[in-house]
Amino acid sequence: WSWNHQSAALVLQAVFKKQPVIVDTIELDKRFFMAAASDKIGSRTCESFVEAAALVSNECFAKQYHRLVRNDTLKMTRDRSANFVIQALLSACPTDSLFAVILDELSQEPQIIVDKMGILFKIMEWPVRKGRAFDKTIAFLYEAFEAKTPDAKQALVKRLQSTQMGLSILALLPSYPADLNKYIVDGFLDLTDADLLRMSVDRTAAHCVEAFLNTTHSTISQKARSKICRKLVPSAADLAVHPAGSFVLERAFQAAP
Questions:
Q1: Of 5, 91, 140, 187, which is most buried by a Cβ count within 10 Å?
Q2: What is the pLDDT of residues 152-191, one digit of tens each?
Q3: Taking the model in full, what pTM does it have?
Q4: Rounded to an integer, what distance in angstroms lies between the CA atom of residue 53 and that of residue 89?
Q5: Rounded to an integer, what distance in angstroms lies between the CA atom of residue 224 and that of residue 95?
Q6: Is the alpha carbon torsion for 92, 94, 98, 100 positive or negative?
Q7: Handedness of CA 223, 144, 119, 40 (dihedral sign)
């Protein structure tokens, strides 16, 4: 079947979802997989294939990754459609060792990820879901943006807040260990009151502010949260009547000492 044909692709995606074990019996040619991954429709089928492999077993996922993707991770990352397959790989990746292999390939040219923020989000999200490998991914983040000095690392906050996906990445970082997210927290605290207000009344950016105020799933210190709260106080009346801002204000009240 052609993975690029819409009708066939929809059938295959349904089959992989309902009977994932079938992927362990399919011997795909790498050239066929790469061609499908580079196609808008075919890439969705490849994503379903990858997700099904992870459901079957760690061994099945590893076998398919090494046979079909290994050594071409960067090539797929650059491709407009195939990069979504890499995102699926990162989301489904079940083990530390395989994640390290994928990250190692991407680390050969980390700067290209700046233009593929979806992949960067999946990289930064993996430790939050798994509870490990935080040090490797924060190092990758700094390397991707060529942030080598403390000032450059703090300035990364403003670079991330310039796009929706960047904000989503920024919202993950309060969940990183305090010794690893220190520069990000310092950069966030350096935002002006006006910057913080603009973020708080933006639907996407408001979730980021809430993440820095969160008292349960965060390593942000009480001192840092209090400083954010103080920056929001002058705008409390405006936030209270705004759909997104009101949630930020509620979180600020919860975070206040």
A1: 187
A2: 999 999 999 989 999 999 999 999 999 999 999 999 999 9
A3: 0.92
A4: 10
A5: 34
A6: positive
A7: positive
